[in-house]
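Let's do one together. I've listed all components of the complex below, 857 residues spread over two lines.
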Amino acid sequence: MVFSSLLFLFCFFPAVLALYFACPRKWRNFILFAASLIFYAWGEPVYVVLMIFSTVVDYVLGAAVDKYKTAGNMKKAKGAVIASAIINLSLLGVFKYSDFLIGNINALLGISIPMPGLALPIGISFYTFQTMSYTIDIYRGEAQRQDNIIAFGTYVALFPQLIAGPIVRYQTVAEEMMGRKENVDDFASGIHRFMIGLGKKVLLANSIGLVWEQVCAMGIDTLPMLSAWIGIIAFSFQIYFDFSGYSDMAIGLGRMFGFHFLENFEYPYMSRSITEFWRRWHISLGTWFREYVYIPLGGNRKGKNRQILNLAIVWLLTGIWHGASWNFMLWGCYFGIILIVEKLFLLKAMKKWPVVLQHLYAIFLIVVGWALFSLTDLGQVGSLMAAMFGLNGAGFATGESWYLLTSNLVLLVILVLASTDWPKKLAVKVQTMLQNQPVIKTVVSNVFLVIVFILALAYLVNGAYNPFLYFRF
Amino acid sequence: MKKQEAIATVAVFIVLIFGLTLWNLLTPDRAFSYNENKSLQQFPKFSVEALFEGEWQEDFEAYLTDQFLARDAWVSLYVGVEQIMQKKDVNNVFFTEDGGMIAMDTKQSVKDTLVEKNLNRLERFAKYFQEKLGAEHTSVMLVPTAQAMLTEQLPANGQDMIFDQLALLEQARERVDAQVWIDAESVMAAHKDEYIYYKTDHHWTMTGAFYAYQEWMGQKGYKDVKLEDYDITVLSEEFLGTTYSKAPAWGIQPEQMLGFSLREAANEYTLRIDEGDELINGLYNEEKLAEKDKYAAYVYGNTAITEIQGGEKNGRVLMIYKDSYAHCFATLAAADFETVYLVDPRYYLFDIWNFAEEKQVTDVLFLFNAINFAQETNLYTLDE
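Okay, and this is what the predicted structure of the assembly comes out as:
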């Protein structure tokens, strides 16, 4: 189930909301847990078993880690952590990477081992990372073990962040699992956040996504330069507003139920370097890899060479986490190399550049990165690159390019503005202006909310076009 | 202060979410959407099997979408916002300066391989009947639609986005004998400033069909057709067609639908649909004029076979192998043949050659609009 659907907005969510707040506190985790299982099972009735399996495994292993640690047996505690990692990564390996691995082995050795052809269970990349974080956090003493399996299950399956993140580390919400206090202020700010996310997803991401789809349908091989750039810029906007919109909705929904998730995006397209971009883009994933891979590998504490190796490992993993396909690996390597170069010297040198140039540098590399990311077929990626840099002989522009550009110009301008923090600054400014006029302020903010909601509904009703990009991860 | 603002937000939200949910629940389900001309999904029957396969969930979502309150109004709002955003097409519809609409069929909506197949089928059809009935009794007419003819009304570069129908016509012309080819393009071009295409529908108007009919009759040397020979009646003033359904913008004017009847001839027409036993009087389905799908009034709309009796008693039998462009056209052609058969390959999947033999057809006309011809997947009955 996705948030931006009539099903969620007018069936699932009202029902859960009513049940949740009608019931006493001690039942609320159970209601969320049950609701989350339904939410998940709606599209994947069978795979819900996998998620429950992962939950039970880490519940048991987390308890084991705690027990051994208290008994002073660090060796066994570590064993339990390793067991958790192996089981979770095996789940990922089998359900996400087996076809890819076998396909490559077959190609390499010229043999034909049959592929299992398993469908990717939704959200598996997210929930396995979450359950692992629990066991590791206990081992490190950064979180208490959770005795209540319903509370733990709720943490893993919590529907707001279940299928597309943010990846909530256990320590972030550990206390709120048992003793959260829902309140009107949180609920109201959650609503605002949810509506903004809904608007980003339905009004912006879906609309510009159609342009990318149109460009792809024109045939990647023969695109003129302008069409290729319109296409990849459209994709860049689509993936940002799609994913960050989803995170906004997740954070907003969480807040309505009294959870406080960490931010996942911080205006990434305003970055002045790739290093900065990765501090602003999918923050929860970056944090996860830093906390559970980079730092345990030694981070930057074991000399420059080791640091570079560590970075390379992290970025290879980041790439492949995004999908079982070579282009994601390539995309990870691409950013790994840029980050290493920035770390070695470029970041220092760039400080002397004019700010505009720094922005251009970052945005150019980001968009080129999306070209690697956008198509899973490497041949197609090559064609797109050739088109972008005018190497396919298709010329600069055709009538189609100009049509696409002019027809979507207003949308593109809106997307550029919406990628910056200016709308937020404007909102803050308006709010301070109206500080002494609470009634007008209330009216203004609620009218905004209602308009976004009504428009989103119109777009939802019009289009069955409502895909979530981050489903495949 | 802050608290009150938060309470207001929560209240607004609760009203929106629960209000719309309740309203939806309390509104009775509709069986059919006239605007979209389709049956709407009903509450799906529950079964454990369907649940585990996810089918029930899919149907349920389709049910919610189809039955959503005031669905048409939401789509109109969407179209309005897209227009404000200066989109040049909305839901594959161009908006023209004079407040009309033109359907947009993109290059990508047409598959070259299918076009090639259909050209071969057309060629086969024409050759077969030319041999059998003679070139003077065999005709092929592919009609360019509004998007191909009214190019100056399209937005800038709009023409670059759409499938090139005129190039297709050129290809088709080369495939058939010059005596067989009816040049609808020139006819439509000569009259393109007249009201020959609907502004809210993908069909040609009665007037457009008339000019094509005139050309056909003339080229075949059958008779001279003059506009003055016809009584023209207004069938409806309230027509909003398929293009409007795709993008129901606010402020679009409904259109006129005309009926042409030959003044001199006092023909009494009867129709027989799909070889049934019932004989229907008249060429128009008056009931349809009261509904959304008004174009279906002409010879009772889409059928597998429509048989028209009552034209000139000359022993001639015309078979029109066609799409819906032939429906209003047939109300004119009915006068000149003792019997007219309209055969629609989308619904009639049997052997067309046998059919012509059996009905002792003396004349054939292959009549499609160019875009339908390019996209039609049901012409395989013409394959060997």
